[in-house]
Design goal:
The complex is a heterodimer. Chain A is mostly beta strands. Chain A has strands at 3-6, 11-14, 19-26, 32-38, 45-51, 56-59, 62-67, 72-77, 86-94, 98-101, 105-110. In chain A, the strands form two sheets. In chain A, strands 2, 4, 5, 9, 10 and 11 form a six-stranded mixed β-sheet that branches. Chain A starts with a strand and ends with a strand. By secondary structure, chain B is mainly beta. Chain B is built from no helices and eleven strands. Chain B is globular. The mean pLDDT of chain B is 93. The chains are: A mainly beta, B mainly beta. At the A-B interface, strand 4, strand 5, strand 9 and strand 10 of A face strand 4, strand 5 and strand 10 of B.
Chain lengths: 111, 114
């Protein structure tokens, strides 16, 4: 079955540094991969989508890479701020129309 | 902009009771889905629908029923609640299929089964 792995341990970084979160997957070759942000008590919010042929995508301070050989996506937040503290989820599609999620990585940015 | 609205926000049930979690979206999205979120398990897909009158099972469908009589509404029914169904339930919608479209989530229903 499809499996998505995200680092379950929280990532703690200092304000201004670059945060890098990892998403690894097995047993499938998705055409798309999505990243979401989730704050406590709220539903996930869509951030970025990357296609398998895009390799890298940027949106303001966010950057996502997609390495289909390594079966890995990296999510970067540059110049991180305390307001970036949240849980970040990656998700991919399998069986055409089922979107499955990783367990998420909690990011804590300290002033 | 209401987006995806879930009701109720909180609910406590006794084992064996039934209830319906409501989900409504006002974006005319074709695709709707239900997830449950448990600590350490992430979001798991329960049921989904690609349009009115069409539903299908996700990863963890047992104990849940859905129907899609309109584009706007996608209720989730618990037939006979069990403690294992204690969880946070999220409804999501998207334009077209899920494989290349952002999902819009509601803020969840927190359900406790005693």
């Amino acid at each position: 079955s499809q499996k998505i792995e995200q680092n379950s341990e929280a990532l703690n970084i200092q304000e201004g540094k670059t945060a890098t979160l990892t998403c690894n997957y097995t047993n499938y070759s998705p055409a798309y991969l999505q990243w979401y942000r989730q704050d406590p008590g709220r539903g996930p919010v869509f951030l970025l989508l990357i296609r398998e042929n895009e390799k890298e995508k940027r949106k303001e301070r966010l950057k996502v890479t997609f390495d289909t050989t390594l079966k890995q996506s990296l999510f970067h937040i540059t110049a991180s701020q305390p307001a970036d503290s949240a849980t970040y989820l990656c998700a991919l599609v399998y069986n055409t129309d089922k979107l499955i999620f990783g367990t998420g990585t909690r990011l804590q940015v300290f002033p | 902009n209401a987006g995806v609205t879930q009701t109720p926000k909180f609910q406590v049930l006794k084992t064996g009771q039934s209830m319906t979690l409501q989900c409504a979206q006002d974006m005319n999205h074709e695709y709707m889905s239900w997830y449950r979120q448990d600590p350490g398990m992430g979001l798991r897909l329960i049921h989904y629908s690609v349009g009115a009158g069409i539903t299908d099972q996700g990863e963890v469908p047992n104990g849940y029923n859905v129907s899609r009589s309109t584009t706007e509404d996608f209720p989730l029914r618990l037939l006979s609640a069990a403690p294992s169904q204690t969880s946070v339930y999220f409804c999501a919608s998207s334009y077209g299929g899920s494989n290349n479209q952002p999902q819009h989530f509601g803020d969840g229903t927190r359900l406790s089964i005693l």
